[in-house]
Each structure stands twice: as C-alpha cells, then as structure tokens.
Design goal:
The chain contains 14 helices and nine strands. With 382 residues, the protein is mainly α. The protein has a single domain, classed as Glycosyltransferase, CATH 1.50.10. Keywords: Hydrolase. InterPro entries: 6-hairpin_glycosidase_sf (IPR008928), 6hp_glycosidase-like_sf (IPR012341), UG_Glycosaminoglycan_Hydrolase (IPR052369).
Length: 382
C-alpha cells in the first residue's frame, strides 16, 4: 500500500531551507515569548508559566541552530532558560509533560552547547517525572489533582501523550547510569502497549486505573471524539513514542507495535495525507483537519524508516513519511505568508472546546523534524 506518487528528496531539501529561513524571520517578532496557539489572523497567543506547549518553539530554534550554526537561533533559545528554571523550581507545576518541556529545551541546549546547567535541569526534571511512576500499576500518572478533570478523575489516569515524554527518562538514565529511570520508562511503555492499544491497533487517548489497588479499569478520551474513537494526534504520539522506545531499548516488540499502529493510520490516510482530527469521526460531524497530527505521524513514520533493517521496509515507511509531509506542504504550509508567525495552519488542538483550525507550535516543530529526517539528519533531542 505505497502512496501513489513516488517522492524524491530534493524538493524536501529546498523546503527545509525555506522553513529555516521563515523561522529566522519570526524570531524578533516572537521575542522571548513561547507560542501556544494561533489566532484567526495567524498570529500567536503565548504561554503562561508551566504550559506543556512551551518547549516546541524552543526546540524548533535548537533544530535550526543545529542545522545552520547561526548564533541568532542559539541566542533566542538560550533566552528561554529562565522560563524553564522557574518551572523546575516549582514542583507543583510538574506533570507528565516534563518530557516535552525539558527534552526540547534543556536536553537540546546541553547537546548543542555542553551547558552543564541545562544538563542538571533536565536530569532534575527526569527525576520529577519518575516520581509520577506507580510501581504496582507500572504507569506514569498524567495529571495533577488541580487538572480541570478534578482529583477524582486524575489520580489513576495515564495518557497516550506520555509515550513521547519517557525519552527524557531514557536520556537521564544514560547520563546518570540509573537503571531505575530506564526500567520505569520501559515498564510504562509496556503498560500502555497492553492497555491503551486496542486489538485493531487503534488507541485510547487515556486509560484509568484504580488509584488505590492499581487495577486496570477502562480506556477513555479527553480530546478525541468519543471513548471508542481514535484521536489522530494520540495515534501519532504512540507511533513516534513506541519507535523511540525501541531506539533506546533495542526491544523489537516496540518497533513492531509502532509499525502496526502506523498501518492503522495509513489505512485512514490513503485518500488524504492530512488527517482528520479523529480517525473515527462520524461523517455528520465537522471534518476539521489536524496538521499537527499529520506532522507527528510523518516524523514517526520517518523515525521507523531509520530503524528498519530491511531496505524495502525502510523505503516503504520513508515514502509514507514524505507523502504526509508533501500533504502538509500543499495544504497547510504558511511559509509564503509574510504575516504568519507559524509554519502550519489547520491544526486542531481541542475540537470540543472550539480550538480548531489553528497554528500549533508542536505541529511546526514536528514538521521541521520530519523535513530533517527526510533530508538525512540523524540527531534529535528525544
């Protein structure tokens, strides 16, 4: 089930350079702010303290610095250190999103500048993430009692997004020699493989355990259409996340699972490479697209391609990754706009709250990551 068109790398190389130049052009407009969500006129609303979205523009800047070596990218990323220092100093703000927040800011900063303070901040964040690990249930609790769902609904809940956050624990384990962090990340991944992935390789967004006994209860959604639907961005977190777990562990069951989750997504993307926000959305509902789900899925396909030993299988996943990126280039790309502050339109953050058809900084970050993977770049911050 290859895409109908066979893609070559050069077109994507040229567009990668265009995205980097576009990012550079917006640095002074964005300043030291952290983009959160786009407005109707393609400007940004910005994050307050501790926002889970806060790291994606920073990660985008670090990727551009890695590509170009230009000081403007590094300086802009470094200006955000104070934001993350405040976050690490306030443990009441911490939840499972520490991986997003500190992999793309502090792990990235340490990798590219050897700044020891970045390293220590990221290690501290990894240990804080470990404190959310439930040793009996073998999962990471997603949210705090202060979450909008309330304490009665959060204290036994894990979510699919967390599969991207475990990379911080794997990285910190390598830095410190702590097998405790690595084993918790593995255990959590195995628990989600068992409970959040369905038999047909669609996924729940969240899964509930009894907070006292840790017994599994049921899967639900928070941002998807329904408990038994399949939120497209959630599926993408799982594809990228399980592939990343394989990259850290070498355990092939995680790579095989990432592939099977990918096949489910491919079946729903064969007619349009930009996904609808939920793969099981009834036709009677507004068919909002989610460019961010497309970008994460594309990056996940390309990560899988880089991990495949079989040349034909590698080519298959690479072609699918390029197919999704080309869809984003054709339908959602804003780099020809002199006014837009973000790269992609048509993101769906939270459709039930009318947060749809927006620019999203995580869509932009993964779009850049996917373009880089197509063009053969190997080093990332996960």
């Amino acid at each position: 089930m290859y895409p109908e068109t066979r893609y070559e790398h050069q077109e994507f190389q040229n567009h990668l350079l265009k995205v980097v130049d576009f990012t550079k052009g917006n640095i002074r407009k964005i300043g030291i702010n952290n983009p959160k969500i786009g407005t109707a006129d393609n400007q940004w609303l910005y994050c307050g303290p501790s926002d889970w979205v806060s790291s994606f523009w920073t990660g985008q800047l670090w990727l551009c610095y890695q590509l170009t070596g230009e000081e403007e990218f590094k300086n802009s990323a470094n200006f955000r250190k104070a934001y993350f220092k405040e976050m690490i100093a306030n443990p009441d703000w911490h939840d499972h999103d520490l991986g997003f927040q500190f992999s793309l800011s502090c792990v990235a900063g340490h990798m590219l500048t050897e700044d020891e303070e970045y390293r220590q901040m990221a290690i501290e964040a990894a240990h804080s993430l470990y404190l959310r690990f439930r040793r009996i249930g073998k999962y990471i609790v997603a949210w705090n009692e202060t979450h909008i769902l309330g304490p009665e609904k959060t204290q036994g809940k894990t979510i699919i997004d967390s599969l991207q956050n475990t990379a911080l624990m794997f990285w910190a384990s390598q830095q410190t020699g702590s097998d405790l962090l690595k084993q918790a990340a593995i255990d959590h991944s195995e628990t989600l493989a068992k409970h959040i992935v369905r038999d047909d390789f669609s996924t729940f967004h969240t899964f509930n355990f009894d907070p006292l006994t840790q017994a599994p209860i049921k899967g639900e959604t928070f941002q998807g259409y329904a408990d038994d639907s399949c939120w497209a961005r959630g599926q993408s977190w799982a594809i990228h996340g399980f592939a990343q777990t394989y990259a850290y562990t070498g355990d092939k069951k995680f790579l095989e699972l990432a592939k099977k989750l990918s096949y489910f997504a491919m079946e729903h993307l064969k007619d349009d490479p930009v996904p609808i926000w939920d793969y099981r959305l009834p036709e009677s509902e507004p068919q909002y697209k989610d460019s961010s789900a497309g970008a994460v899925t594309a990056a996940g396909f390309l990560l899988i391609a880089s991990l495949c030993e079989d040349e034909k299988e590698r080519d298959f996943f690479e072609q699918w990754g390029m197919h999704l990126v080309k869809g984003l280039m054709d339908q959602c790309d804003l780099t020809d706009s002199s006014e837009a502050l973000g790269v992609l339109k048509n993101g769906a953050s939270f459709v039930a709250r009318d947060m749809c058809d927006n620019m999203l900084p995580y869509g932009d970050y993964y779009y850049l990551e996917a373009l880089m993977r197509i063009c053969g770049h190997k080093r990332y911050f996960w």
